[in-house]
Amino acid sequence: MRGKFFVAFVILCMVFTMFTMTGCASKKQMPEFNEQKAQIDKSKSRISGLEKEVGELNNTIRETENSLEQAKREGKNLSNTINKLKSQISQLENEKAELEKTITGGEKTSAKASQRINSLNNQIANLKTEISEKDSLIVAKDDNIFELNETQNELSGLISSQKEQISQLQNDKNSLRTQMDEAIASKNKTITILAVILAIAVIAAVAGFAKGIKK
Fold first, then answer.
1. E strands along the chain, which residues?
2. DSSP letter string over the chain?
3. What does the pLDDT profile of the chain (215 residues) look like in tens digits?
4. Which CATH number fits domain 2-214: 1.20.1250.20, 1.20.120.530, 1.10.287.2610, 1.10.4030.10?
């Protein structure tokens, strides 16, 4: 009878020891797990925020690129218009030069030529004024293009910086996840070892008890 109580006592002691050791390990690791989980959640939240910011920056940079392309097109159109106006001025000045050559002293002819020359001078002056106005527009467009290029470069730099932060946070999160997985695996391994030891002890105790009964 005493043998039975002894075997039961040994088994209970082993079970108690196993759960005590497991519980102590769990309590010791719990604050660390909670802290790591909080850090992982914080990293996820920060990554999500950064990815949203990158998305917004990409939209802004696309809008900037569209504005830049439009400004370049408008600048090119203005340059083409100026070239056409200069060509017209050149033609008018050639016509004026020819008229000036035809003035030989005939009063009527000279009056008509002078009248035409005055008209040509007015047209040339108007075209030059238009060219001057378009030159000013081109200068403004060039300034706008410069500012848009600067904005585009700044946005590209911000996007690159945000992506680097995301990459670093991903690495930190993965590192913490690996540490947690390793800790959990180690805990499970410890529990498995204790369970095996307990099973061996129980078998040994039962075998000893059986041997005692035979005697």
1. none
2. -HHHHHHHHHHHHHHHHHHHHHHHHHHHHHHHHHHHHHHHHHHHHHHHHHHHHHHHHHHHHHHHHHHHHHHHHHHHHHHHHHHHHHHHHHHHHHHHHHHHHH-SS-HHHHHHHHHHHHHHHHHHHHHHHHHHHHHHHHHHHHHHHHHHHHHHHHHHHHHHHHHHHHHHHHHHHHHHHHHHHHHHHHHHHHHHHHHHHHHHHHHHHHHHHHHHHH-
3. 444 455 455 555 555 555 555 554 444 555 666 777 777 788 888 888 888 888 898 899 899 999 999 999 999 999 999 999 999 999 999 988 888 877 765 555 677 888 888 999 999 999 999 999 999 999 999 999 999 999 999 999 999 988 888 888 888 888 877 777 777 777 767 667 766 676 676 676 666 655 655 55
4. 1.10.287.2610
Rounded to two decimals, what is the model's pTM? Answer: 0.59
Boundaries of every domain in the chain: 2-214
